[in-house]
Each structure stands twice: as structure tokens, then as C-alpha cells.
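2 proteins. here.
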Amino acid sequence: MKKLFKCIFWVCILCLAVVSPFINSGYNMYKEALENIPIDEMVAEIQSKEYYIELEDVPQIYLDAVIAVEDRRFFSHTGVDIISIGRAIVTDIQTMSLKEGGSTITQQLCKNIYFTQERKLERKVAEVFMAIELEKQLEKEEILELYINTSYFGSGCYTLREASLEYFEKEPMELNESQCILLAGVPNAPAIYAPNANLELSLQRQAQVIAKMIDCGYLTQEEADKILEQEI
């Protein structure tokens, strides 16, 4: 037993030695980004967008779908979801890649507005520091609103309202439930899931979102079946 604990101890020390440079680099990246554009200035810049939309003008089922598929513990974490990160680490170790990110909506917002989309460890670290800072300065509803106004939906659309007008020629509040849920799944991979890119894959993604919504308690199976019958 002593040998086992000793082995675990040295593995932890080794991991810390390997990760420390990335933590330092990520922290510096976060500080530099914040110094260049403070959060209040960044928020004001985003809110000045032509197609910016407030939460009160967004269907609740769209917001439920986003929470279910992107960050089911959004309203309970402080910017970083330890459970999701742990699951992502296991997946990344198994696949020997950084494919699974475990990012919360807050972290994704940080990536959208402050950092690049590159899958680099130091960027992930910077994202964590920035997410914690965002959660200190903004309410959850503000973060969610900013997120749907900075996510990429394909076809040059960087807000939900743009995407709604582009794909369905409707304002978001005019969308039916099926259309709302379809759009909620697009930002995960816009080049694949945008309805004008590949409708079949877009519908497959919609089905995945609906399954998550059922799992989270936002929909019953009966409600889901009725939604799937609606026109896209």
C-alpha cells in the first residue's frame, strides 16, 4: 500500500511539473487579454452589434436547448464545471487528443470574445481564468445573453437573430419549437450542422439536442415526438 501511495505521489509531482509552464503561460495570456480590453468594454462592444438580441426576445425552449446540450450545470457552477472537465480529461487521455474540452458556456463565451479557437493547453488555461473573472463581474443571464450573441451559426451569422433571419426568414420569437432546437445545435460545428450545409446532419444534431433536453427534464418523450413532427 505504501508503494502505491508513493507511486501516486510521484505521478502527481510529475504531472504538476509538466503542467506548470502551461498554467503560467495561460495566466499571462488571460491577463494580457483583460488588459487590452476590460470586460465592461467588451460587453459594450458586443451589445452595440446590429443584430444583438436580448434574452426577453428569445424563446425559452431555445435557451433550454442550449443549456441542455452545452452546459447542463450552467446555473450552478462558477464558470468552470469540474465534473465535465474530469470527464473530458479521461476522454482526451483515452483518445490521446484534446478533442473533448469540457467547456462551460462561460468558457465558450471567453473563447468567442477573447481567444482563438485553437486547441492549445495554454489557451484552455487562459479560458478558465477568464471564465472565473466573467462570473465575478456578470450575472448568469448576462453571460447567456452574450453567448447567444457571439456564437457562430455558419453563413456569416454570429448572433441568434442573424441565424434565425438567414435560415428561416423569421425573428427568433417567431420560430417554432423544432426550429429553435435545431439552431441550438448548430454552433457545435457550424460547417456541418448549419441547415444550408447539410440538412440531414443538422436534423441528426437536432435529435441529439432533444435527447439531452429529455435527459435534463426540459421535455418529455411525448413532447419531443410532437416537436419532431413540426415543419423545419
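next one coming up
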Amino acid sequence: MKKLIKVVLVLLALALLIGSIVFGIFLYKGYDMYKTALSESSMQERVEKIRSKSDYLGIDLISNDFKDAIIAIEDHRFETHGAVDFISIGRAIFRNVTSGSFDEGGSTITQQLAKNTFFTQEQKFTRKIAEIFAAIDMEKTYSKDQILELYMNTIYFGDGYYGINAASHGYFDKAPLDLTFDEATLLAGIPNAPSIYSLSNNPNLARQRQKYVIQSMIEYGFIKDKVLE
């Protein structure tokens, strides 16, 4: 029995060692990917390129309902955590394993902005690591409001609309500051899966997603209770 326990402990130690080596390799590759991206163009240059677009909007020109909705549905602890939210990552892993769907990522708004700013949408573990390094540097350089502003100006809403300004005008023919609660919460649900929730393709699915957005706003204290207009 003692011999068996010893063998098991040795195997566990070996598995831990191999796992650490593999993770270290991915960590190095992810860091190298981020540094390669930086060598092509600095973070500040990439951010200024985003801000220089003609339809870029300051955070004060976007409705509070949309800001609250996008935080509630994408990253409700955005204001309190750092670049990475380990609680959300743990919850996402648990939900993916228990549901078998593997469609919840646990990425923070900063991580999503880092991905949109530096990398392609290709799902690779190395890119995920690189995204974390980029997000950490981003939070060192920009405030939460600046990050949220950049994020809202870069996310994709389907139908060719990149950024809240294009989406608001394209779908509702109005400025983001003038969005109603109904319109704001409807738009906030789209970036999770633009090809599925875009209003021209699947308006009914978009409305179902909107209900989840509103439920999240209530659950996380952004609103007490509110019905669709």
C-alpha cells in the first residue's frame, strides 16, 4: 500500500512538473506575441488611431443606460478588478465544464479591448495569454473611463457597424446620447455574438438577449426594476 501511495505521489509530482513546463512555454509565447505586436505599433499609436476616427465619441456623448448595460452584461466587476478578473474566469470555467458549451470566456472589458486593439479574433491559447499582458499594460496607461470609452468605440454590432456611434445611427438613426432604455439595452446585447444577434438577421433572438441584459442590470444593481418601453 505504501509503495502504491509513493508511486501515485511521484506521478502527481511528474504531472505537475510537466504542466508547469507547458504553461511556462505558453506564457513565454504569449508574451513574445504581445511584444511582437508592440514592435509593429505601440499601444499609444494604436489608441490614437482609434480616437482619430471621424465617428469616435467621448464617453460623455454616450447614454448612461448603454454604459450601464454593457458593463452589466460584459464585465459587471469592471470598476473594481484589475486587468484580469480571476473570479469571472473561475466562474466561466465552471459553467463551461458543467454545461459542455464552452462559450463563456470570462474576459474583462480591458482584455476584450486589448484583443480588438492588438490581435485577431482567432481563438488560440497563446493569443489569450498575449491579450492578458496587453490588458495589464493598458490598465497601467489608461483610466477605467478611458478604457470603457475605447471599448464602446471599437466593439462590433453586426451589419458592418463598428462602435456605438455607427450602431446607434445605423439601427436607430440617432446619436448614442439619445438612445432610449429599450434601444440601449437591445444594442448592449449584440456584441456577445454579432452574427447571431444583429437586428437585421435575428431580431427575435436579439430581444431574448436583451432580457438577459436587463436581468443582469437588475442583478448587479445598475437598476432597481425597469420594463421595456
